[in-house]
Amino acid sequence: MSTDAGAYGDPETRTRILAVTWELVADRGSSLKLSEVAERAGVSRQAVYLHFGDRSGLLLALVHHMDESLDLGESLAHVQAAPNGAELLERAMRLNTDFWNAIQPVAQVLEAAQHDDEALGAAWRDRMELRQMAFGMMIQRVADLRQLAAEWTVEDASALLYAVAHFDTWRELTGQLDWTDDHYVEAMTRLLRRSLLAA
Amino acid sequence: MSTDAGAYGDPETRTRILAVTWELVADRGSSLKLSEVAERAGVSRQAVYLHFGDRSGLLLALVHHMDESLDLGESLAHVQAAPNGAELLERAMRLNTDFWNAIQPVAQVLEAAQHDDEALGAAWRDRMELRQMAFGMMIQRVADLRQLAAEWTVEDASALLYAVAHFDTWRELTGQLDWTDDHYVEAMTRLLRRSLLAA
DNA sequence: TCGATGATTTACACTGTGTAAAGCAAGCTA
DNA sequence: TAGCTTGCTTTACACAGTGTAAATCATCGA
Hints:
Two copies of one chain form a homodimer. The longest helix of chain A is centred in the middle third of the chain and has 29 residues, at about 85-115. Chain A is elongated. Chain A has helices at about 10-30, 35-40, 45-50, 55-70, 75-80, 85-115, 120-145, 155-165, 165-175, 180-195. By secondary structure, chain A is mainly α. Helix content of chain A is about 75%, strand content about 0%. The first copy, chain A, starts with 10 loop residues before the first helix and ends with a helix. In chain A, helix 2 (about 35-40) packs across helix 3 (about 45-50). Mean pLDDT of chain A is about 95; it is low at about 1-5. Chain A has two domains: about 10-70, Arc Repressor Mutant, subunit A (Orthogonal Bundle), CATH 1.10.10; about 70-195, Tetracycline Repressor, domain 2, CATH 1.10.357. The interface between A and B is large, with 38 and 38 residues. Chain A binds a DNA duplex through helix 3.
């Protein structure tokens, strides 16, 4: 960590640096060099340091930047508005695959840096806790609809849903095994529906 | 990559370096320094380079070293010998949690390095393919027992089982949410049993 | 015209990786 | 016992990438 976000400099320059960083993270991964960022953004390397303090400050700002452009509220509401458990689970998995698709490169870098960089680790865990809460609310909704199978507590079902929808699982299926988004949604929904919902 | 494994030097020294590397990976993660490895092993930094070529050669050797000490054949046979699908899934999840427990620190480092380091990435993917095959054989066994639910193909069920049993999911549940191994085995087994097995 | 701001240029310190070369101790072999 | 090989040490250095510092410059508003 270092300078507080947004404190210094021309907002446009700042945004431009972040945009370039996003691009570079997307294809170079965590091995991006600050000199490269600066070059592609058309500023000096030192400008980057002035804006973001250090490497991890830059990545951190990128995470915040993405948060804003994502705006999950609406999508979550749509999931919660599902008329029944099965539909809710399907919408949840659809949102999940869209989410991971959107942030994939950053997720990769953050998962990797999580244990080496305290600030980045905290930022990542923070967002994951939001995810947990979101999935918790979904399961609560299923329970309210009286469709959660008797075998499950809300806590266990929430945690499991959260964990099973996590990045690795999604990446192995869609990235490594070449499943399409639809295939992912369909299979995951089937898995969860049979398990979590009352017959 | 660099020198071929096992080509150079005193095997005892080699083993000692690997043992120390394992320790360091376990508590420093991927931020281990070769100088630290050398110091703790009681050899010069250059000895490490002579034995393993470079950083990624050392990590690679560590992976091979662990393979030997793990010997999964017997455990896999025990899973396959389960009398029915439910028991098989439980044994699979038990083995899974034991496996991740055993290699957790290395898994962390390799998952992180996977996309930055070609050699390490290949080594990791190689092992993950073995996992895939193992889970594939398990599902095939369930199918042979006529206990795979009609909704599932062997391929889809295998892939999903593999993906759902992956590292992230396990780590989130046991590491972040503080589930015990037993809790993990129980909940995952319940999830999979209800989904994959015929009623 | 003054002064603040945003950024540039240049320079340098530091860390960690990787390479190169000379030397040294022990053991085998002729 | 001389000579060679092997395994390692010591020293030295090149290089990349991060991070810091200071002087300078251009622009813009008061």
